[in-house]
Design a protein that fits this description.
- By secondary structure, this protein is of the alpha/beta class.
- The protein folds into 2 domains: about 5-155, VC0802-like (2-Layer Sandwich); about 180-215 and about 250-375, 3-Layer(aba) Sandwich (Rossmann fold).
- The protein is about 35% helix and about 25% strand.
- The strands form 2 sheets. It has a 7-stranded mixed β-sheet.
- Strand 11, helix 10 and strand 12 form a beta-alpha-beta unit.
- The longest helix is centred in the C-terminal third of the chain and has 21 residues, at about 310-330.
């Protein structure tokens, strides 16, 4: 399909510029970053490629209609005017989600009901049947976004969120979403020829995302997408794009990606996920305390997502951990770039190092920071107060 369509790709807040660059590399046009995502345009093949290759987008939404509204009836009429039976069959299950910023309407749940009614009324008029609703695992997700005066209806081409790559079989506590991890790796400037270490690797998300980037493995290869349920799904084109992605992959050997953790069960989860991703040859894991392990090379990039200290007992533990982390970096990682992603902003003071960069990011609704430390011997320690 050579027709140009309009799309919107939501992403973790703070990564909009990274996502815009990624979409531009895929051939997107009319790229428009905004808070929480990027609008863009392109043909049907671009939508397939964005779902297959984007490491940072949370999903790819196809914009069906955008117009002003004043009442719930206006939203119903806009949804009713869409030829839904031309898009997917009545046998497909549906779910409607509504979000709003500044909308004056009394209930977003009621708006979701009105949009669902419009879709079902359209099907009844066309074929005498209506699709069923499935709020857990629907075939088709319909998104409505309302501002104070504007309504936009989208059809979700991704289905499950794109950060669900298909390799995660086991998780630890509060695992980092894969697309956020990929975006953080991009922000560090890490390159595949550099050594990478995650000394608190958890379930291995940073390690796996880094190895997939280095090996040019498309993040969407192991999963299915909602666009496969649409009537205009072009299976030969999709097969061609997948085959091209596989042909572009690089060998899994020869990388310098290391991870460690001091908890055997956590390492078990990491190994299971790495094996599911087919990256056993690309990543070296070992059991080690982050405060005691040595650098695996003279130079490299250290990346870490320490616990946030939500509970009081965790905060006391972190109060003691952060200064020791700073000391370990000074002693063993001279010549490295170190990055800590955390929502515990006390780290910046307690680690007793001077951050060379602080980047605001969001882990869901939680505001966080990515702190960068250039580990040059003798120059990073803060003076004692």
């Amino acid at each position: 399909m050579k027709q140009v369509f309009h799309y919107f790709a939501p992403c973790p807040r703070g990564l909009e510029a990274m996502l815009a660059e990624e979409l531009a590399a895929l051939g997107a046009q009319q790229i428009a970053p905004t808070d929480g995502g990027v609008g863009f345009s392109g043909d049907w093949a671009l939508m397939y490629k964005a779902n297959l290759h984007s490491r940072i987008a949370s999903r790819i939404l196809w914009r069906l209609v955008e117009k002003s509204y004043r009442s719930e009836d206006d939203v119903y009429k806009a949804a009713r005017a869409i030829d839904w039976p031309a898009l997917f069959g009545v046998e497909r299950t549906i779910k409607v989600m509504v979000t709003g910023v500044g909308s004056k309407l009394r209930s977003l749940d009621f708006i979701a009901l009105k949009v669902k009614d419009a879709v079902c009324d359209n099907f009844r008029a066309a074929c005498g049947e209506r699709p069923s609703v499935d709020t857990a695992t629907p075939d088709i997700r319909i998104h409505a976004f309302l501002t104070e005066r504007q309504q936009t209806l989208y059809l979700d081409t991704s289905g499950e969120a794109l950060f669900k790559r298909g390799y995660r079989r086991m998780t630890g506590d509060a695992p980092l979403r894969e697309n956020l991890a990929a975006g953080i790796l991009r922000l560090t400037g890490w390159q595949p020829e550099e050594t990478l270490l995650d000394p608190m690797c958890g379930s291995g998300t940073f390690l796996i995302e880094a190895a997939m980037m280095a090996c040019r493995i498309a993040p969407g290869l192991k999963r299915q997408f909602a666009f496969e349920h649409l009537k205009n799904f072009d299976a030969p084109l999709w097969d061609k794009l997948r085959a091209e992605a596989v042909a572009a992959e690089l060998p899994r050997k020869g990388l310098h990606i290391y991870g460690s953790d001091d908890t055997p069960d956590v390492l078990l989860a990491a190994r299971a996920n790495i094996a599911e991703a087919g990256l056993q040859e690309a990543i070296v894991l070992e059991e080690a305390d982050a405060l005691e392990r040595s650098a695996p090379a003279e130079q490299g990039v250290l990346i870490c997502n320490p616990p946030y200290g939500i509970r009081l007992e965790e905060q006391a533990w972190l109060d003691a951990l952060y200064p020791m982390l700073g000391h370990a970096l000074k002693q063993r990682f001279s010549g490295w770039r170190a990055y800590f992603f955390t929502a515990d902003l006390r780290l910046a003071k307690l680690i007793r190092l001077s951050a060379s960069k602080r980047t605001v990011l969001f882990n869901g609704a939680l505001e966080a920071r990515l702190f960068e430390y250039q580990m040059v011997a003798g120059s990073n320690r803060k003076p004692k107060e």
